[in-house]
Amino acid sequence: MKNLQKALLAVIAGSVMTMSAQAAISYGAGQSYVGIKAGQFMVDADDLDDPTAYGVYAGYNFDPNFGAEIEYVGSNDADVDTGISGIDAEFDLKTYGAYGTYRYAFPNTGLYAKGKLGFAKAEIEVSAEDFLGNSGSDSDSDSGVAGGIGLGYNFNPNMSVEAEYDYVAEDLTLLTLGAHYKF
């Protein structure tokens, strides 16, 4: 029975590799890209300000519609409203994500719609200091299914801009504007 399972897995793996290779050849071996983005994290918590976001991303389009993308987005230090006089607190966010992407190009316009679905990890680090100089910090992380939608414009075959709205984790979304170079 184990030999039959191994043979079946080998046939499936070979078929997937053959289809992937055919898709890459028909699309000219795919297209890689790298980009930068900036925007704002939107934190659904009354005592936390929404920090500025900045990040980098890279991807590969297997064909004109389907691709894969990874990204890192960090933030500046934002204030925490402790509600206590004499205590200053701030936090920063970091997110890491890996996504499958789908693009739909609107005919004869340069515009395209983008959707992405995958996995992301969000990390928060909080630090506080009181008026006597005592300080402390804490951190936490959350990971799970994440995704986003966006709208982009191709200036030429190598340069594009994108506006995106992403769901990163519970109580955390991200709105960004990015630019990338395709090679």
Q: How would you describe what is shown here?
A:
- The chain is mainly β and 183 residues long.
- The chain has a single domain (30-182), classed as Beta Barrel (Porin), CATH 2.40.160.20.
- It is built from one helix and nine strands.
- It has one helix spanning 2-26; strands at residues 31-43, 52-61, 66-75, 78-80, 87-105, 111-130, 135-154, 159-169, 172-182.
- The protein has an eight-stranded antiparallel barrel with strand order 1-2-3-5-6-7-8-9.
- The longest helix has 25 residues, at 2-26.
- The protein starts with a helix and ends with a strand.
| Proportion of residues in β-strands | over 45%
Strand order of the largest sheet: 1-2-3-5-6-7-8-9
Order of helices and strands: HEEEEEEEEE
SS summary, helix count? 1
Mean pLDDT: 85
User: Over the alpha carbons, how many angstroms does the gyration radius reach?
Assistant: 21 Å
Helix coverage percent = 10-25%
Straight-line N-to-C gap = 47 Å
Total E-strand runs = 9
What is the level-2 CATH architecture name? Beta Barrel
Name of the top-level CATH class: Mainly Beta
What kind of sheet is the major sheet? 8 strands, antiparallel, barrel
CATH topology: Porin
Keywords: Signal
Signal peptide: 1-23
Domain Outer membrane protein beta-barrel: 13-183
Protein name: Porin family protein
Helices and strands in order:
Elements: H1 2-26, E1 31-43, E2 52-61, E3 66-75, E4 78-80, E5 87-105, E6 111-130, E7 135-154, E8 159-169, E9 172-182
Pfam families: OMP_b-brl
Organism: Psychrobacter pocilloporae
Protein name: Porin family protein
